[in-house]
Structures are given as C-alpha cells and as structure tokens.
Amino acid sequence: MPIKLDHVFLKTSPTSQISLSFSFSMETKGKLFALLLLLSLVAVSTGHGEKQNARLFVIGDSFVDTGNMGNRTSDGLMLTDYIASFLHRRTPVIYAQRKKASKSELEDGMNFARGGSGVLDVSFNNYSMTLQVGNFKEQIAQNVYTKVDLENSIALVSYTGNDYLYKTTRQKGTMKDVFDQTKTIVDLLTKNLREIRGLGVKKIAIFGTPPRGCFPGMYSETLRKCDRTWNKASRQHNKLLKESLKILNKERHGSKFVYLDLYNAIDSALFDKIKEIVGFANRFKACCLDAHMCGPIAQKKCKNPELSIFWDAGHLSQNGANIVYTYLVPSLSQLL
Ligand SMILES: *[C@@H]1O[C@H](CO)[C@@H](O)[C@H](O)[C@H]1NC(C)=O
Ligand SMILES: *[C@@H]1O[C@H](CO)[C@@H](O)[C@H](O)[C@H]1NC(C)=O
Fold first, then answer.
1. Which GO terms of the molecular function aspect are on file (predicted)?
2. What is the pLDDT of residues 15-35, one digit of tens each?
3. Domain 53-335: which topology?
4. What pTM does this model have?
C-alpha cells in the first residue's frame, strides 16, 4: 500500500530546517512505524517540540502562496518554507487542501494566500486580502483553531503590490495613478492587519513591497538600470506602511507587528559586491524562460538556477528566497 508522508524535515544546514513533501511506498505498517519513530527522534534531537503551539497563518499574494492558486511560483522552496522552518514549523497546509489535511498538519497553521491578490476587490484574481481574512475567520468559527491556538500564533502577511501592477497593466493606468493610490492601499492593508490582530494573533509580520523596478522586465538590460519610478513607488508604500505599523504597535492590544524589509533584502541580493563575481548580469534575468509567470515544472529553465535571484518576472527563485530569508533573519527573530 503506498503511503504518503508529507512534510518530512530534512536537515540542510546548521541554521535551517527545510520541510519538503515526498512519497514513500511501504510494505508493512511496522516499517512505517519504525520510520515515524526515527523521524520523531530526529525532531527531538534537533530541538523541535518546543514551539508546538506556534502556528503559522499566511495571508497575501504569490510571494507566499504555496499552492492555493495551483502553482508555487518558484523552482523549489519559497519564503514561506524558509520562514516556517525558522519558526520550527512545517510549511503550513494550504487553505485549498484543508479538507484533506490531517489533524497534525492543521497544527502547523494554514496558508490562505493567493497569487494575484491585493487589497482592492478587483485585482488579478478578484480575491482580496479581506476575503482571505474571511477564510481565516471561517476556520475559527468552525473551531479548527481555538482562541488559545491563536494567542500562540504568528501571522505572515505578504503584500508585494498587485494592486499597483493591476492598475498599470489591466487598467492601463499611469505611474501617477500608482502614486495616487498608495495611501488608499496602505490604509486598506492596515485595516486588514487590525482585523488579523482582532482575531487574537499576537505576532504579525508583514513584508514591505520589493524593488519592483529591478525585477525582470522592468530592469533595463541595455542601460543596466532599474526602473527608478517603480522603485520610488515601492519606497513610498513602505514609508507609509512603516508609519502605520508604528501606530499599530502603540495601540496596546498586546500584539506585535514586525516589518520585514523585502525591499532592502532583494536590493542587497542584487547589488552585493561580493556576489557580483558570480553571474552578475544573470541576476536581473528570470531563470524560467517559459513564460512571464512560471510554475515549478518549467520546461525551459536557466543553466544555473542556484545562481539566480528571480524565478520569473515577478518572483524569487529558491536561491533568491534563501538569500532574502537570510537577510530577514534578524527581523524574524522578533517573532520568537
Ligand atoms: C474581476 O472583476 C472585474 C469587475 O467586475 C471583472 O471585469 C474581471 O473580469 C474580474 N476578474 C476575474 C479574474 O474574475
Ligand atoms: C502550473 O504551471 C505550469 C507550468 O508553468 C502551467 O502549465 C500550469 O497551467 C500551471 N497550473 C496552474 C493551475 O496554474
């Protein structure tokens, strides 16, 4: 009988535990039991088991969506995997597969994020962050998660700017429209953060928007320059967001908001002088050559994905995610 074992911890480096999914075919229950025993010994010996209750809930867009919209936009691991592993959790179950999840898997938390989501009602997928928070509330109403569970939980919120991209592409807006929209967007984002806090989550981490102007397609290969206007728009969003977080953190509701500086994390990955030696030019290129947005099973990918930063026009490759994650570790430590 084939038995599927999801999310097995693999020790890949001294500082991080990576969880991967794969299947085993086992003949007897005895063998399975022996394997589970072995895995639990590994878990104990590496210090897991201490943070049993800290569930991770993920809300946002494709930067953290590990499958709700059908695909991971990466050649492998994403920031969600690295951050979950940093928090000693397995990658949380995706909302789309909650009904198939075991009780133990649900204990890791849940990922509500969807590729294409923004905070406005109309976006690439018309599935706003508010609807995702609604999905979260529904899980609480159904007692999948209790008040005590939530008090021990961490929320990771990813807003990397889909509303702005939707404005300039589908709605043919200008960059002025993007700048004009920033305050509305950050206000809506803040409203969602308050809602998440209202559910009883005590620690909430949120990404700043990335240097969009340096992403493949926006970066000018001929001029070897990032699009400065897009980067400025990202920085303006981040400035307002940080002001907003300052206010949220003063509102003594016992919840902590942590800013995750995606902008400088990616910026330093792209411009780090030491790493320049290795394939500098390729860093601004998408590794997946199949499409503008790629799934993990791309037919045509770059020669050395392990040197890339970007997987496709809008997303980090596994290597990129790993570098960015490393940059974010000091901030992530505030969640422990
Ligand atoms: C989202 O809603 C808008 C406005 O109702 C509609 O024009 C658009 O086709 C919708 N997009 C999707 C992906 O459903
Ligand atoms: C997943 O990605 C593959 C390859 O990029 C693509 O062909 C497929 O349509 C995607 N599936 C979904 C559900 O988006």
1. hydrolase activity, acting on ester bonds
2. 333 333 333 343 444 444 444
3. Rossmann fold (3.40.50)
4. 0.84
